[in-house]
C-alpha cells in the first residue's frame, strides 16, 4: 500500500499560507530544491486543491525556459511524469497532462488510490490536507520550516485535530530552512 504524504513549506509559527505576503525565504535555494526533488521523486500522484494546482502547474512548462538550471528541469520532468488529481468545484478545465478534476474530496476514493498505487501519493495545500487529515488518511508529514513568523493565515495542521507523531528525519539548510519528517504512530 502506498503512503499519503502531506508536505508544505510552513512559517516558524505554523502557517502554510500567510494571511499577507509570502512565507519568507528558504526554499528557493538550489540545495533545498534538489533535496525536495530527491525526497519526492517517488511520488506518483499529487492531490491538489484548485489554488495549489494553479501554483504548481508552472512545472508543466518550466523545462522550456532556456535559462532553467538543471535542478529546475529535473523537478519539472518528475512533476510532469506524475498523475495529478485536482479537487475543485470551480475549475473548468486543467492545463497539464496526466491531470483530472474531481468535484469533491472522497476519502474512500483516496483510500482505494492508496491501496492500488505502486508509488506514494502527496496531498498539497492546507485546505485539502485538512480533509485528508480529518479522514485519517495521511501517513507522513513533511514540514519545510522557514525562519519567518507571519502571524496568521492558514495553518499547516488544522484546528481540532490531535495527532501523535514520530520524528523520523530532520535536516537544517544553510538558508535557515529546517526540514522535519514525521510519521503517524
UniProtKB/TrEMBL annotation:
<dbReference type="Pfam" id="PF01872">
    <property type="entry name" value="RibD_C"/>
</dbReference>
<dbReference type="InterPro" id="IPR002734">
    <property type="entry name" value="RibDG_C"/>
</dbReference>
<dbReference type="GO" id="GO:0008703">
    <property type="term" value="F:5-amino-6-(5-phosphoribosylamino)uracil reductase activity"/>
</dbReference>
<feature type="domain" description="Bacterial bifunctional deaminase-reductase C-terminal">
    <location>
        <begin position="3"/>
        <end position="178"/>
    </location>
</feature>
<protein>
    <submittedName>
        <fullName>Dihydrofolate reductase</fullName>
    </submittedName>
</protein>
<dbReference type="GO" id="GO:0009231">
    <property type="term" value="P:riboflavin biosynthetic process"/>
</dbReference>
<dbReference type="InterPro" id="IPR024072">
    <property type="entry name" value="DHFR-like_dom_sf"/>
</dbReference>
<dbReference type="InterPro" id="IPR050765">
    <property type="entry name" value="Riboflavin_Biosynth_HTPR"/>
</dbReference>
Amino acid at each position: 500500500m502506498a503512503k499519503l504524504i502531506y508536505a508544505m513549506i510552513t512559517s516558524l509559527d505554523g502557517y502554510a499560507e500567510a494571511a499577507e505576503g509570502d512565507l519568507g525565504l528558504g526554499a528557493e535555494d538550489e540545495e533545498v530544491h534538489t533535496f525536495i526533488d530527491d525526497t519526492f521523486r517517488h511520488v506518483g500522484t499529487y492531490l491538489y486543491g484548485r489554488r495549489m494546482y494553479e501554483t504548481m502547474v508552472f512545472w508543466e512548462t518550466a523545462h522550456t525556459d532556456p535559462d532553467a538550471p538543471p535542478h529546475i528541469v529535473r523537478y519539472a520532468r518528475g512533476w510532469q511524469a506524475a498523475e495529478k488529481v485536482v479537487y475543485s468545484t470551480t475549475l473548468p478545465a486543467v492545463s497539464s497532462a496526466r491531470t483530472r478534476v474531481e468535484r469533491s474530496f472522497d476519502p474512500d476514493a483516496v483510500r482505494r488510490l492508496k491501496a492500488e498505487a505502486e508509488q506514494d501519493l502527496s496531498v498539497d495545500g492546507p485546505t485539502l490536507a485538512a480533509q485528508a487529515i480529518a479522514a485519517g488518511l495521511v501517513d507522513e508529514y513533511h514540514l519545510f520550516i522557514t525562519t519567518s513568523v507571519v502571524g496568521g493565515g492558514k495553518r499547516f495542521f488544522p484546528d481540532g485535530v490531535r495527532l501523535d507523531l514520530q520524528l523520523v528525519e530532520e535536516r537544517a539548510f544553510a538558508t535557515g530552512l529546517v526540514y522535519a519528517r514525521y510519521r503517524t504512530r
